[in-house]
Design a protein that fits this description.
single chain, alpha/beta, 7 helices
């Protein structure tokens, strides 16, 4: 079985996040670049299954600039057998539609029985990429799973709903996404870090995938406006001179909070 795990390099969750007001793109140099934690959890699902199931190959894949190679190698150090990176200057600013099309082409080229992703990234927070991939690939999807069980010909799991939990399953090949309910990822050890240097690492361009992207813009969507976040306003301070309760009630009514 071949499991492909999609990883993404994102700005550090605990660091500064800034947008370029000219392009509308995230300034990825504003803070440290790290692997998205939800992608690491997806990789942990694949590696755990591989350890328990002989003949399972785990491949990590990303679409990012050349600078993301070091982050992708972390996936190799954690235990993945090989890595695939799609890097092309024409993909700068690609939106979810283009990203899904390019990743689907790379997945067809690499081959897969199961694709595992996080349910949404911490930078874009789109949450629709897994479903878009499944549509492009023509395979079933099981998204937002809080538990996963993989067998030789199917994958199943549970999903939290407004009414409790739902059990879902799909025959392979398939695409699934996982939530933060899954276990934390393992840390790469020294042996894994050294072994990662010798593992296969393939870098692909759009030409390799035979995918055309508009050279003028890698986005299919249209940005209508962008602006800096408004500065935080000072709150209202109530001084108690015997009428604090009345002042608070008036404030809540005025702001339709009561």
């Amino acid at each position: 079985m071949k499991i492909v795990v999609l990883l993404k390099e994102v700005p550090d969750t605990y660091g500064d996040r800034k947008l370029d007001l000219e392009t509308g793109l995230a300034d990825r140099d504003a803070s440290e670049r790290v692997l998205d934690e939800i992608g690491e959890r997806a990789l942990e699902v694949a590696l755990t299954h591989a350890e328990a199931t002989e003949g399972t190959e785990v491949v990590v894949m990303t679409m990012a600039s050349d600078a993301a190679a070091a982050s992708l190698r972390k996936g190799l150090a954690m235990g993945a057998a090989s890595a695939v990176q799609i890097a092309d200057n024409a993909l700068r600013g690609a939106d979810l539609g283009v990203t899904a099309r390019v990743l689907a082409a790379a997945l067809r080229r690499t081959g897969f029985d199961l694709v595992i992703t996080g349910n949404l990234s911490t930078d874009g927070v789109g949450g629709v990429l897994p479903a878009m991939l499944a549509e492009h690939l023509g395979v079933p999807q099981a998204t937002a799973l809080a538990a996963v069980e993989i067998s030789a010909d199917a994958v199943s799991g549970t999903r939290a709903t407004d009414f409790g939990t739902a059990s879902v399953s799909a025959t392979l090949p398939a695409v699934i996404s996982v939530t933060e309910a899954l276990p934390d990822a393992r840390f790469p050890n020294f042996k894994g870090i050294m072994a990662a240097k010798k593992k296969p690492f393939e870098t692909l361009s759009l030409a390799d995938l035979d995918v055309d992207v508009d050279p003028a813009s890698a986005a299919q969507s249209i940005m209508t406006a962008i602006s800096a976040k408004a500065p935080r306003q000072a709150g209202v301070k109530i001084t108690d001179e015997g009428d604090a309760g009345q002042q608070l009630a008036a404030f809540l009514l005025e702001n339709r909070l009561a």
